[in-house]
Amino acid sequence: MLGRLLAAVLTAAALAASAQAETYPSRPIKLMVGFPPGGNVDSVGRVLAQEMSKGLGQPVVVENKPGVVGSLAAELVAKAPADGYTLMVVAGAHPVNAAIHQSQPYDPVNDFAWISMVTSYPFAFSVRAESSLKSLNDLIAAARAKPNTVSNGSSGQGSVQHMTAELLGQAAGVHFLEVPYKGEALALPAALGGEVDFVVTTTTLVVPFIGSGKLRPLAVTSARRWKELPDVPTVQEAGIKDFEVTSWSGLAAPHGVPEPIIQKLNAEVRRAIAVPAVRQRLESFGGDVHGSTPEEMKALVAREVARWTALVRATNMPRL
User: Fold this and answer.
1) Superfamily of domain covering 122-238
2) What value, to the nearest 5°, has the Cα angle with vertex 131 and ends 135 and 236?
3) Which pLDDT score, from 0 to 100, does residue 67 have?
4) Which residue ranges of the chain lie beneath pLDDT 70?
5) How far apart are alpha carbons 278 and 149 in whole angstroms?
6) Closest CA to 288 of 206, 222, 230
7) Domain 2-121+247-314: assigned CATH number
8) Which of 45, 200, 213, 221 is the most exposed, fewest CB within 10 Å of its CB?
9) 3-state SS class at 215
10) Are 31 and 44 in contact (CB under 8 A)?
11) Would you say the C-alpha torsion 209, 200, 290, 273 has a positive or negative sign?
């Protein structure tokens, strides 16, 4: 008797969720971005919002809530109603935040309903053109010869760029001197001016400086050579086995959004990024454009939380 009652309740709930998805959305959707207007994550969000508004038949409105490298927006979304009307553009900084903060008001994996990946892109290790460091192996050798003296112009403690340099140091058995700046837009001029020995930045940012001969790229962090820098070796080619770091962007919602709505949003993201004009615009930001299943995205976030947490512990990195 109890079993039949439970089955009836579950069936009714499933039917209700399905009916809710059929009428979804019936009002505007808020798309939260945890970074200021004009940056990569914001730009991805605005391109998606414009196209998804067409497919969903309701406005998708971008709302910027910058703070704590995206954590402020993540907290707001994690605590929002699980009805599909509050979404978030998630960036590669999300799992890093989980690793470097001693406590957060949300679970970085399980407090979200993951929708789909959108873009991914690697980083580049670069030095000024006049540098005596001609390769990544030169950089590692210099750091090995004089520990804590080869300086990295970091995009800020706990940024993905900072963590990427730390990961290289751990893998190669060397220690770099971190010189933090408030973002890679300030770290890059420091490298150009000779204030620091090298920088780790998004590939899109450094390509113009490489083209003008002001910077020399040493390696890219992707598993294969990057399309925009085909002559630049990967970190793995320099002998650091299994080294791969890519940043990314994707969409998420609060945990508990009915599965039919998540599937509807997943299908809409995939449709939107397949539109040639949308795809071309997203690719212009320097990334590979590709969707994913919700399960694939959740697994990626969980893996990255585990990886960055392990790095923080192994290097005794100060937690915030």
Assistant:
1) Periplasmic binding protein-like II (3.40.190.10)
2) 20
3) 86
4) 1-20
5) 44
6) 222
7) 3.40.190.150
8) 213
9) strand
10) no
11) negative
Instruction: Report pLDDT for 318.
Output: 81
Domain ranges of the chain: 2-121+247-314, 122-238
Q: What is the pLDDT of residues 99-154, one digit of tens each?
A: 999 889 999 999 999 999 999 999 999 999 999 999 999 999 999 999 999 999 99
Contact between 161 and 96 (Cβ < 8 Å): no
Give me the phi and psi of 8, to 5 degrees please: -65, -40
Q: Where are the alpha helices (DSSP H) in 234-317?
A: 259-274, 276-283, 294-314
Query: Alpha-carbon distance 52 to 58, whole Å?
Result: 8
Residue 306, judged by CB atoms within 10 A of its CB (0-12, 13-18, 19+), counts as middle
- Would you state the structure tokens that stand for residue 258, as one six-digit string? 């009915």
Q: What is the pLDDT, as a whole number, of residue 12?
A: 45
